[in-house]
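name: query_chain
kind: protein
chains: 1
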Amino acid sequence: MMDSKIFSVIDDQVSVQFTGKVNILSNFNRQFLGHILFRQGKIVDALFNGFSGEKALYHLFIQEFSLQSFEYVVEPEVVDENIIGLFFGTQELKERMADSLKLYQQSLKLRPPENVKIVIDPEFIEDSLQVTSQEFEVLCTLTEWHGSYDIYQHCPLLDHEITMALVGLRKKNALKILATKNNP
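structure:
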């Protein structure tokens, strides 16, 4: 993963202290999928497939690792100094993404199938069991979204963090898993 195309593009922009954005385009039809915003060679923000910030970068790297390829178009532009974002250097980003990829791969076998509905057990609300901040984020997402796929799309946590929070909540009997019928 560390010699992926996106890291090569990022390394190039960091080495020249680039300010502007790198557009991420579909290799298939050149559709705009997102961008990475740089200010003086540091990543300050990212958007990709509806995600923003670190989660956008995470999904980009996971998809590139899964052998999906993208086109990257470098576009110099003025970047507002009021944008306070990620401020990753290349080495820190590589380390964070390598760690995230490792955790992602480990959590895949624990991820719930996409055809289940997950709801909060009302009895858990009455209990006084402590929850972690990540479990709390997942519980907040579950108040609005119940499908496994939707939880991963709408929760601000990274995929492996969501999976581990779901496992923790399941161990605390906080969740009910409901099977849905498969459409033929």
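note: The mean pLDDT is 87.
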